[in-house]
Write a structure and sequence with these properties.
The structure is a homodimer.
Chain A (H helix, E strand, L loop, with lengths): L3 E3 L4 H27 L4 H18 L10 E3 L5 E2 L19 E3 L2 E8 L12 H18 L5 E9 L6 E13 L2 E10 L2 E11 L2 H4 L15
Parallel strand pairs in A: 1-2
Antiparallel strand pairs in A: 2-3, 4-5, 5-7, 6-9, 7-8, 8-9
Amino acid sequence: MFGHVMEDLTPEEIAAASQLYAPLADRVRELVAATVLTEVPAPDVAKAIQLIEEATALLGTKAVEGSFGVRWTPDGKRRTWGNAIVGLRNPIAPPLDIRQRGDLTYADVVIGPQYEGPPTLVHGGIIAAMLDQVLGDAAVNAGVPGMTGTLRIRYNRGTPLGPIRVQSAVDRVEGVKTFVSGQVIVDDAVTVEAEGIFILPKAVRDLGDNPPPGILAPGD
Amino acid sequence: MFGHVMEDLTPEEIAAASQLYAPLADRVRELVAATVLTEVPAPDVAKAIQLIEEATALLGTKAVEGSFGVRWTPDGKRRTWGNAIVGLRNPIAPPLDIRQRGDLTYADVVIGPQYEGPPTLVHGGIIAAMLDQVLGDAAVNAGVPGMTGTLRIRYNRGTPLGPIRVQSAVDRVEGVKTFVSGQVIVDDAVTVEAEGIFILPKAVRDLGDNPPPGILAPGD
């Protein structure tokens, strides 16, 4: 499939790449927040722009064309490091560090000022984005990965910026459809509820009973 | 309401602030994309981090506490410049430049590699986020601004990274509920459909028949 990239890397090489690019994305996340909040005068903005342009040019001297895609190793280890919600090298992503405990798929994350919608609250769309990812990961964790078919979100009340939990669990599987529900939780209270249906892609169905290693396992 | 900030600025001062901070956010957007795609070796990453940390420190020398909030002028002009989807000074935001033509509310935008989910496709969650905003703006444009109550998204097929249109229109208003539908369009084909119900906040209902100027008008 286009955008899926096979790379023959050792675990050590993957760890080294993570240790190289994850801190870079973290520093850009801090810059993003500072850009939203800054009130410095024009000369300081001009100087900051100069520094940022220099960093961008430097990073661009060797770069992937198009988009990062999803990377695989021959033993089936998947890396979604460019993903907009979970990508460890994507400064747009909070990033969600999605974990699994029993049937529960969840992420604990602190939501910064760059994700604001209504004043002091997390943007409802960003909440939808995180739920889409965490519900989808529940399907992956259950061995039935799918593209989002439908997603329904019910906002009970505003979700303040700061620490939140996003969680999900598979309710049932019917043929190619996996039904998943989830919640956003703040201080033990549910602020948002979601239901999603995820569709097993034809490309995966066509793999039959002997999929390549890792295709049905969680990535990172 | 907390996070709503009144500022007595002239139109010229607002234009100057936009011209100062919007280009900064644009440069950070370019850096975000470069961070996702870069393959430069460790010494270059270290140098880029140094430049980025310097820029962040400089921008932090004078900054808003907490979050940007929503800013108002006494004549009722609203600025949502920190918003995660439309904020002109928020590098997380594409940003959507949401316009109105007749009953249609829409944004034409080019989606870059930092919004990727499945390889080469826009993250389904990011699509949900943009739809939440554009559907909500249709309610605002119809004079019935609301918090998202429910949002339902149907993904017909993947939406490729690149130029897309996100559009919406109000279907009907029932009491405090505004029913809005919308679509994502790529090359004249609908890739995603959405329906939302937006709830007129009690704070606005309490304003009665004489709301302050601008409270029911689109911001920017």
